[in-house]
């Protein structure tokens, strides 16, 4: 909401700097994004009077103008605007002036003719092109006839004003109007605002009821109030400059005197209005209802829209002509040929309007206010004010009476609160007189009975309903800085991380020590990406109102986000990327009210983890490297049960021959492997290896106590064994058997060769292991090692049919 400081002075006696006022608003009411000074940075831009305008001899579109800029002699300026003419007052940027976009204007020649400056359009002064009136959008702006040549142009365009840009929170919809903001500032500075009055003159001959037939078929909750007025014999023309200035300083584009009047009242009262061309209504019949399936409406922006059954529509003889509270229809638009105006003032349900605006992508000034609430008591006043203004600006007459489709009995809310409660919540020692004075400044009629305040809340503050709301008002006006600061009471606790927090932090350190870089991805993604790489079966949690189609569902995995991050880096020529993410995924079942949040840890690596250097060749990432990272991480957790890796082809997005599920005991805790080539291509990444672990489950699993064990000072003995064994027997099975039969002194079993080529029978493979024996307390005897080693060989032969080589 952009608030004009000059307009505020119509309500209040304010002399403090705009920055100071903005800070006070921010500390007391709502956030302020900043103070806008339209003339800031502009220099030597003045009023000029065109004395003579002749065509340029060497151009079919340029003009040579002699312009009076208040100096002794006129200056010559070459201008290409199609609407420039002698006798006009125009905007002149003198030589060495600065205009919009920090552009400096110098003397120049244009096709041989000297140009001592520039005649300016509004957008060249820094106006947003969307705010420039259409009639001067392709040319220069013409100043009023009383503008004095040589004077700075800013006061004539409202550019000497200061605009306070407020970011109004949803609960303070009353401040989306000049009236509401004035009431707020009056309370802050203890003033009585000068509120606008309505001077409406109605025709004694024409009755609005004779020409308008208004009915409301929608539910009373959806449309609690709907009224119309009729203004006849209106001349459509551009608005006077003072009104255009108010409109564009508020961030809206001037259109014509009728539309600008409705927008002015919108800014003043916060009440959206809509003007229909009466002659385009079917017999003056207007009805309000919910849209029907299959109905269409072409809105003012020229878009044909498929209406939804939840949309409220204004109809003429049951044909939709307007999306209620959102945007009017093109068929009943006010044009230069319009003579009679049917003016609508209504209250619509906030939820209905928000859904309509969202579903059709039509977030307008009107819908924004309906969504945040409207002062129900001001609708008739705003309707009368707009009718009077349209009649005045367009030389028309207002038909007698308001045609009412539905009316509402608006009653103020009464709230009781005690002084004791106020002081208890705020920690203050305010007196009854001090609190009563705050309610007086807010213009809330109040009666006091002992310790109790009975406060009548005007309809303009629809955000106040309960005692807690009044406590907030007292705190705001008393000043948050004046509230006492105290330390919380209670038993102090030791500040430290809990087990889960510590495990998560340690996980990040371990991943980074392994060479991976932390990434943070969006929790919201597409439904397809949400379901990919899912570790468990789950419903997808979808958003009712997503910000975009790319952020419409909660993720079930972390890998899809990491692949997006990899693709982003690869597109920028980063070929070796190793990322990890620790975050939550969201599993949901049909009977659940809300999804279950589970901590996961995932990694994704493409290219080489170790870059090429002198004497060291780059080694592309493979399954065993990423499995080693996962194994090292799991080992650090000191899990009580054994960790096993089981080959799996159940993950549709993973390579069926290079993927393994990870189990701790019988519990599935994750998977590791290569992304399926088809999936990698879809994400626009190269060969990529990933893992994902259920961190919540891993943290909850039983752990072993980790104890210090000294390094043995006695020598170790090694034995090598090579064998032919069936292809289907895995390395893990062999290692488990060797470990179980190797005796008390067997320390490690290491596979150092795998071969299944020439001279190896079909269906067989050759494996070679090194077994290391060591005693912590004494030097091993060779015979003891030999006996233990022979037991291993026997077990391999008997259980696996191994042929020892």
Automatic annotation (TrEMBL):
Reaction(s) catalyzed by this protein?
Answer: tRNA(Phe) + L-phenylalanine + ATP = L-phenylalanyl-tRNA(Phe) + AMP + diphosphate + H(+)
Q: Which residues form the TRNA-binding domain?
A: 39-154
Tell me which residues bind Mg(2+). 463, 469, 472-473
Signal sequence extent: none
Instruction: Kindly report, in one word, the top-level EC class recorded for this enzyme.
Output: ligase
Task: Keywords in alphabetical order, please.
Answer: Aminoacyl-tRNA synthetase, ATP-binding, Cytoplasm, Ligase, Magnesium, Metal-binding, Nucleotide-binding, Protein biosynthesis, RNA-binding, tRNA-binding
Q: Which cofactor does it need?
A: Mg(2+)
Report the co-factor binding details.
Answer: Binds 2 magnesium ions per tetramer.
Q: Return the InterPro entries for the record.
A: aa-tRNA-synth_II/BPL/LPL, B3/B4_tRNA-bd, DNA-bd_dom_put_sf, Fdx_antiC-bd, Fdx_antiC-bd_sf, NA-bd_OB-fold, Phe-tRNA-ligase_IIc_bsu, Phe-tRNA-ligase_IIc_bsu_bact
Molecular functions (GO terms): phenylalanine-tRNA ligase activity
- Compartment(s) where it occurs, according to its Swiss-Prot or TrEMBL record: Cytoplasm
Report the residue ranges that make up the B5 domain in this protein.
410-485
Q: SUPFAM superfamilies, from UniProt?
A: Anticodon-binding domain of PheRS (SSF54991), Class II aaRS and biotin synthetases (SSF55681), Nucleic acid-binding proteins (SSF50249), PheT/TilS domain (SSF56037), Putative DNA-binding domain (SSF46955)
> What broad class describes the main subcellular location of this protein?
cytoplasm
Identify the residues that the record assigns to the FDX-ACB domain, covering every copy. Answer: 712-805
Q: What EC number(s) would the UniProt record show? A: 6.1.1.20
Q: How does it assemble?
A: Tetramer of two alpha and two beta subunits.
**Assigned protein family:** Belongs to the phenylalanyl-tRNA synthetase beta subunit family. Type 1 subfamily.
NCBIfam families, alphabetically?
Answer: pheT_bact, YtpR
Q: What is this protein called?
A: Phenylalanine--tRNA ligase beta subunit
Natural source organism: Lactiplantibacillus daowaiensis
Q: Which gene encodes it?
A: pheT
């Amino acid at each position: 909401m952009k608030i004009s400081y000059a307009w505020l002075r119509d309500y209040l006696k304010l002399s403090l700097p705009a920055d100071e006022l903005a800070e006070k608003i921010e500390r007391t009411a709502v956030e302020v994004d900043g103070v806008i000074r339209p003339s800031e940075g502009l220099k030597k831009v003045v009023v000029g009077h065109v004395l003579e305008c002749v065509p340029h001899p060497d151009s079919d579109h340029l003009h040579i103008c002699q312009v009076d800029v208040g100096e002794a002699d006129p200056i010559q300026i070459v201008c290409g605007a199609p609407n420039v003419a002698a006798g006009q007052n125009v905007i002149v940027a003198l030589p060495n002036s600065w205009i919009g976009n920090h552009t400096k204007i110098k003397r120049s020649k244009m096709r041989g003719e000297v140009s001592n400056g520039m005649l300016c359009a509004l957008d060249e002064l820094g106006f947003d092109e969307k705010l420039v009136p259409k009639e001067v959008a392709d040319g220069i702006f013409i100043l009023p006839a009383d503008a004095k040549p040589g004077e700075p142009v800013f006061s004539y365009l409202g550019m000497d004003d200061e605009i306070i840009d407020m970011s109004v929170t949803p609960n303070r919809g009353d401040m989306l109007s000049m009236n509401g903001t004035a009431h707020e500032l009056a309370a802050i500075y203890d003033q009585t605002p000068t509120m606008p009055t309505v001077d409406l003159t109605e025709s004694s001959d024409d009755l609005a009821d004779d020409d308008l037939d208004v009915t409301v078929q929608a539910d009373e909750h959806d449309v609690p109030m709907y009224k119309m007025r009729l203004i006849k014999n209106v001349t459509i023309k551009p608005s006077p400059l003072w009104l255009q200035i108010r409109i564009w300083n508020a961030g809206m584009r001037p259109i014509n005197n009728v539309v600008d009047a409705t927008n002015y009242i919108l800014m003043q009262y916060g009440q959206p209005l809509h003007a229909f061309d009466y002659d385009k209504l079917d017999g003056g019949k207007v009805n309000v209802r919910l849209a029907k399936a299959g109905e269409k409406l072409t809105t003012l922006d020229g878009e044909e829209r498929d209406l939804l059954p939840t949309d409220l529509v204004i109809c003429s003889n049951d044909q939709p002509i307007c999306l209620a509270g959102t945007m009017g229809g093109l068929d009943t638009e006010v044009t230069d040929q319009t003579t009679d105006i049917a003016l609508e003032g209504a209250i619509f349900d906030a939820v209905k309007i928000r859904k309509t605006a969202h579903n059709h992508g039509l977030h307008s000034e009107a819908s924004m206010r309906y969504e945040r609430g409207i002062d129900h008591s001001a609708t008739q006043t705003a309707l009368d004010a707009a009718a009077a203004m349209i009649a005045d600006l367009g030389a028309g007459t207002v038909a007698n009476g308001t045609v009412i489709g539905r009316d509402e009995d608006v009653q103020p809310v009464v709230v009781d609160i005690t002084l004791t409660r106020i002081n208890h919540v705020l920690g203050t020692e305010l007196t009854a007189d001090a609190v009563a004075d705050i309610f007086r400044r807010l213009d809330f009629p109040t009666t006091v009975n002992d310790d109790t305040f009975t406060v009548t809340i005007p309809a303009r503050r629809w955000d106040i309903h309960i005692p807690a709301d009044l406590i907030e008002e007292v705190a705001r006006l008393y000043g948050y800085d004046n509230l006492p600061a105290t330390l919380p009471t209670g038993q102090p606790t030791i500040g430290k991380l809990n087990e889960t927090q510590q495990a998560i932090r340690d996980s990040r350190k371990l991943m980074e020590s392994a060479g991976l870089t932390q990434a943070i991805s969006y929790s919201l993604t597409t439904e397809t990406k949400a379901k990919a790489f899912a570790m468990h079966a789950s419903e997808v949690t979808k958003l009712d109102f997503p910000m975009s189609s790319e952020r419409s569902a909660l993720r079930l995995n972390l890998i899809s986000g990491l692949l997006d991050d990899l693709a982003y880096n690869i597109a920028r020529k980063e070929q070796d990327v190793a990322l990890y993410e620790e975050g939550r995924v969201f599993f949901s079942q049909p009977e659940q009210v809300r999804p279950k949040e589970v901590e996961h840890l995932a990694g994704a690596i493409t290219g080489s983890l170790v870059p090429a250097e002198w004497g060291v060749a780059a080694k592309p990432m493979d399954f065993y490297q990423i499995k080693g990272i996962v194994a090292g991480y799991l080992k650090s957790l000191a899990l009580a049960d054994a960790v096993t890796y089981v080959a799996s082809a159940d993950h549709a997005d993973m390579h069926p021959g290079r993927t393994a599920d990870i189990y701790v005991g019988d519990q599935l805790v994750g998977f590791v492997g290569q992304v399926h080539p088809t999936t990698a291509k879809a994400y626009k990444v190269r060969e990529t290896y990933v893992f994902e672990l259920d961190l919540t489950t891993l943290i909850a699993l039983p752990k072993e106590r980790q104890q210090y064990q000294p390094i043995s000072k006695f020598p170790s003995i090694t034995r090598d064994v090579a064998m032919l064994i069936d292809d289907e027997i895995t390395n893990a099975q062999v290692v488990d058997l060797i470990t179980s039969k190797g005796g008390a002194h067997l320390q490690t079993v290491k596979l150092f060769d795998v071969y299944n080529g020439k001279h190896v029978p079909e269906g067989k493979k050759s494996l070679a292991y090194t077994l290391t024996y060591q005693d912590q307390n004494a030097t091993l005897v060779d015979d003891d090692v030999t006996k233990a080693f022979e037991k291993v060989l026997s077990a391999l032969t008997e259980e696996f049919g191994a042929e020892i080589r």
